[in-house]
Amino acid sequence: MSHPGPPSTAARRGLAFAVQGRHAVLIAAVGLLAAILGLLPPLIKLYKDNRDSGPPPAAGAATTRPEHAGQSPQPTQPAVPPGTVPPGFVGTWVGSINQEGSSKSPYPVTVTITAGGLAQRVGTSAYLTLDCDGHLILASAEGNRLVVQENIDNGTSNCVEQTQITLTLNGDGTIAYRIEPQGFFVGEADGTLHRQG
User: Fold this and answer.
1) Residue 86 DSSP symbol
2) Residue 144: Cβ-neighbour burial (10 angstroms; 0-12, 13-18, 19+)
3) Which tens digit of pLDDT belongs to each residue from 84-118?
4) Cα–Cα distance list, 56 to 45, 70, 90, 121, 145 (Å)
5) Is the dihedral of CA 127, 130, 134, 139 positive or negative?
6) Residue 40: predicted pLDDT
7) Which of 55, 69, 123, 167 is at 20 to 30 A from 37, Cα to Cα?
8) What string of DSSP letters covers 113-164?
9) Contact 181, 188 (CB under 8 A)
10) How confident is the model over 112-141, as pLDDT tens digits?
11) What CA–CA distance (Å, rounded) separates 73 from 6?
């Protein structure tokens, strides 16, 4: 029985080129895979950022953001200096107030808010059926919430002379009006104000 002899020089060269060719293809494939994997994270991030942000809002449009699950979104105010009235509050607002312990409740209110800063006069309040009105001094301003000190100028026999009121701009464009109980003379009061006009 005869055994084949060693491969010829030409056969060895052919085998060497075939092995080198496979190595070259393998190295190229590994390099291509590494390049693709290197690009994947930035591409995924770009995709997620574009998907999550959605289309940009129209210039000057109010945007909203959810505060907590189950609550309505709150308007995002344009950047304003701390302790000043955000533009979304400025205007005349009307509504009806329910007050604990008041025989005249609910009663109508008109609140006018103007621009201003801390400890400045930023508006007026008028209670037609109670026959009293006054002015508002800004006590604090944080995002969509103002706290004002109401000082009654006319009708102090019908309304408490000084009261602290919290005004919160809601996502639907209304303002929540709230008075926390303040001693014997001021019961809890709340209502919703709508922009007039």
Assistant:
1) -
2) buried
3) 999 999 999 999 999 988 889 899 999 999 999 99
4) 18, 25, 26, 37, 26
5) negative
6) 53
7) 55
8) E---BTTSEEEEEEEGGGTEEEEEEEEEEETTEEEEEEEEEE-TTTS-SEEE
9) yes
10) 999 999 999 999 999 999 999 999 999 999
11) 83
End-to-end Cα spacing for the chain: 112
Q: How many residues does the chain have?
A: 197
Record the tokens describing residue 147, joined without a space. 């706290």
Q: Can you say how many angstroms the Cα of residue 148 is from the centroid of all Cα atoms in its chain?
A: 22
Residue 76 CB partners (closer than 8 Å, separation 6+) = 62, 63, 64, 65
Q: What is the pLDDT of residue 24?
A: 61
Cis peptide before 6 (omega within 30 of 0): no
The bridge status of strand 91-99 relative to strand 189-195 is antiparallel
Mean local confidence (pLDDT), 18-30: 59
Please list the alpha-helical segments (H only) found in the chain: 9-53
